[in-house]
Amino acid sequence: MRATIGDQLHVHSRTVEETDRTGLILEVRGTAGAPPYLVRFDDGHERLVYPGPDCIVEPRRVPEA
Length: 65
Prior knowledge:
Layout: E1 8-11, E2 21-28, E3 37-41, E4 46-49, E5 55-58
Antiparallel strand pairs: 1-2, 1-5, 2-3, 3-4
């Protein structure tokens, strides 16, 4: 898994009762884009995340010119 600052981390829920979580990657602390990542989730909480198999990195969207 590789990420850059500004990408979005998408954590898929593990059960029916939970919803997916998304957050903005603020820092990449591993080498060459590897985890861990400091992520600010949509609820405002910031956490250091070592993503598991239930996570994907979505590249940041670049505005069209």
